[in-house]
Amino acid sequence: MAEHNDTIYALASGSVPAGVAVVRVSGPTVRELTIGLVGVLPTPRRAMLRTIRTRNDLAIDSGLVVFFPGPASFTGEDVVEFQLHGGRAVVDALCRELNTFPHTRQALAGEFSRRAFDNGRMDLVEVEGLADLISAETEMQRRLAVEHSNGGLSALYSAWASRLTRGRALIEAELDFADEDDVPGSVSDQVWDDMELLSTELDQHLRDADAGEIIRDGFKVVIAGEPNAGKSSLMNALVRRDVAIVTDIAGTTRDVLSTDLNIDGYLVRLSDTAGLRHTEEVVEREGIRRARQEIARADLVLYLEDRSVVAQAHDVPAGALRVGTKGDLQPGSQGTYDVIISVETGEGLPELRQLITTALLSKVHVQSLAIPNRRRHKDSLTQCVRAIRTALLDSEKPLDLRAEDLRVASDALGRVTGHVDVENLLDVIFGEFCIGK
Ligand SMILES: Nc1nc2c(c(=O)[nH]1)N(C=O)[C@@H](CNc1ccc(C(=O)N[C@@H](CCC(=O)O)C(=O)O)cc1)CN2
Ligand SMILES: Nc1nc2c(ncn2[C@@H]2O[C@H](COP(=O)(O)OP(=O)(O)OP(=O)(O)O)[C@@H](O)[C@H]2O)c(=O)[nH]1
Ligand SMILES: [Mg+2]
């Protein structure tokens, strides 16, 4: 049903009603369809004000029409955009009319980008960057997504892919034509030097993957501690809203409750959890299980302890910030705590915020935003660097097997961008050596 060569259309702008709505159309019948609706094919890439009419010559709306001839368009196909008045019925009327054209249907989710990818307009990293750009809510998410969607990361990967391809080509050449004069001896030595360098660069790059994931998915801060420590009260104070239930009954919170914060342009995902204690109560036990799971996944744990209760803190997770609570009830020295707070007086809250910010900044500190930001990237790049390392490890191994390791590395890198890398291997062989003569 969903034919690949259909012409597809969709509302590309946000929900109606709105000031202006953009309906985007892409596919092989865009030219006829545009002439049918507005009478002419507008000058490419110039906004033109036209009345858009049905077959029966009824005006749908008058709006701006922009025609992008393929392949120099977003999808690589002919594209036309109608910029209409953003009313529900206006958009519906145009979509209804578009549907009456042959082989023309509503686009599936992501189908414009899918076509852009299939037509080589974007690679996978750029497609992912575009998706991230659309869902970005904080400034740093936006900067990371722009870097990726504009090809900043892809440029790095294609440079690395070329080095791998060149290395393989030189080794293949040495294997195939070792007895001929044209191939300089020990070229493979240079290759291995460069592969050594490449593996170092990949290692360095992979070290930034955690920062990339934190910028994209948020810095996960988990509030943990014994029941009644004041966890939910702190959650409410930090987000300045009454999101979590607070009572003096120990064991109030059971579910994990998460709220997003924006700190210095970074997304911070704050979670309130059930108080940790031994209990036979089924619901609370499940809450505590979830709390522990959340703690295990945290980038930062705030471990809260009620200073007015004499208790020995156990269960403090490694690396947690120790927060003494209810500072108003019992003034005293800071002791083993990183900070003492009171949600009643506000004491210590600015200091705690600063501690969170410092922990966050230490984890997202990077030189460039051309960094991996998905598990998928990290996994494939890890496979890539492992394969290079395998090739380097045993210099006594036959050259063809070492070349095979490099092929595995190329494929792993190619999976990140969605490129497959075989055809240009030949190009490089024939390009660098006058083998054919
Ligand atoms: N109206 C409108 N605004 C939009 C988009 C769109 O599709 N329509 N975009 C959609 O996401 C983004 C811009 N992305 C685009 C990417 C490439 C081309 C394009 O036509 N590229 C050609 C020509 C480039 C040029 O003239 O320099 C090319 O790359 O060959 C258009 C939009 C954001 N703003
Ligand atoms: N005086 C004082 N009371 C506080 C402070 N913070 C919390 N409380 C009180 O301590 C009690 C428990 O607070 P919660 O925030 O519900 O504690 P919790 O850690 O979320 O508790 P559970 O969800 O049961 O694990 C409530 O009665 C709060 O009003 C504080 O800074 N000063
Ligand atoms: Mg609570």
Automatic annotation (TrEMBL):
Occurrences of domain TrmE-type G (ranges): 218-361
Similarity section: Belongs to the TRAFAC class TrmE-Era-EngA-EngB-Septin-like GTPase superfamily. TrmE GTPase family.
Q: Which CDD domains match?
A: trmE (cd04164), TrmE_N (cd14858)
Keywords from the UniProt entry:
Cytoplasm, GTP-binding, Hydrolase, Magnesium, Metal-binding, Nucleotide-binding, Potassium, tRNA processing
Coarsely, its chief localization is: cytoplasm
Which gene is annotated as encoding this protein in its UniProt record? mnmE
Q: Which InterPro entries match?
A: G_TrmE, GTP-bd, GTP-bd_TrmE_N, GTPase_MnmE, MnmE_dom2, MnmE_helical, P-loop_NTPase, Small_GTP-bd
Q: Which cofactor does it need?
A: K(+)
UniProt enzyme class: hydrolase
Binding positions for K(+) per the UniProt entry: 228, 247, 249, 252
One Gene Ontology term of the molecular function aspect:
GTP binding
Task: Say if the entry is tagged with keyword Ribosomal protein.
Answer: no
Q: What does this protein do?
A: Exhibits a very high intrinsic GTPase hydrolysis rate. Involved in the addition of a carboxymethylaminomethyl (cmnm) group at the wobble position (U34) of certain tRNAs, forming tRNA-cmnm(5)s(2)U34.
GO CC term, one of those recorded: cytoplasm
Would you tell me the protein name for this molecule? Answer: tRNA modification GTPase MnmE
Could you tell me where this protein is found in the cell? Cytoplasm
Q: Where is the signal peptide?
A: none
Known SUPFAM superfamilies for this protein?
P-loop containing nucleoside triphosphate hydrolases, TrmE connector domain
Q: Which residues bind Mg(2+)?
A: 232, 253
